[in-house]
Amino acid sequence: MSIFSGIWVPLITPFADAAVDHAALRALVRRYADAGIAGIVALGTTGEPAALSAAEQDAVLATILDAAQAGGARADASTGSKPALPVVVGVSGNNTHSMRERIAQLNSLPIAGVLMAAPYYIRPSQAGIVGHFMALADASEKPVVLYDIPYRTGVRLELDTLMTLAAHPRIQAVKDCAGSLDTTLALIRDGRLQVLAGEDMQMFNTMCLGGSGAIAASAHVQPERFVALYRALAAGALEEARHIFHALAPLIDTLFAEPNPAPVKAMLASQGLIRDELRLPMTRASEKLVERLAALETA
């Protein structure tokens, strides 16, 4: 089984009095490892990397990697020890050269891979996108997960582009946020890329079609239930999985009622796990939404 399967959490960055709260960050990694998640995405969009300095990004990643070394969910039966929880690192930008430099820095770290979206804002041609990703994959010594999220980048990865990129030996998976059933199904049937749902409400559909899992911000909350959903589907227990997903759907819907990660942070703060702090231009969830989230917790 590919490493890019199961439920992955794109980890938030907790703040306390405007600084990164490394103690809370470390505790979150351990919490999700104990819940049985497959891995962590560090410095993805949910982690607010655009609001972090380069030094802060490096420090956040160091804390996550250190905490992840304590082990994932699958213990070694002979020794009782747990392997490190896999960590994929988000690398964003629209300057291919500077991104190659960043990837060169990451090559020496014990990471499971890098997650990269298409160059944002400049809206390059599909040929430019292919050249961009091929250059980055050539520079990487780690597996690459493509991130197809056109409503953030302004350009989508067309199916022919994805099929071309799938031929690169280090491009192994895609976080699928394109909203195209035809593309999702074609990638799954092709089989060269592991398809991870990136739209949380589509994770059930994607996994039923044969997708390998999900990178789900909503899995910050009640992570055990998201893991149970994946395991039920992997075991072919469709009725059980459907029951779990139907129960999770109101939570997922509410967690995306306002810009991510504000609702997730509000709910984690209500559980005493972090402070409810974000950095501008992101703002805290509204009082009305916080009330809706509280009602879900007591339901």
TrEMBL record:
Alphabetized UniProt keyword annotations: Amino-acid biosynthesis, Cytoplasm, Diaminopimelate biosynthesis, Lyase, Lysine biosynthesis, Schiff base
Site (Part of a proton relay during catalysis): 45, 121
InterPro entries from the UniProt entry: Aldolase_TIM, DapA, DapA-like, Schiff_base-form_aldolases_AS
EC number: 4.3.3.7
Localization (cell): Cytoplasm
HAMAP family membership: DapA
Protein family according to the UniProt entry: Belongs to the DapA family.
NCBIfam families per the UniProt record, alphabetical: dapA
Described purpose of this protein according to its UniProt entry: Catalyzes the condensation of (S)-aspartate-beta-semialdehyde [(S)-ASA] and pyruvate to 4-hydroxy-tetrahydrodipicolinate (HTPA).
Name under which the protein is recorded: 4-hydroxy-tetrahydrodipicolinate synthase
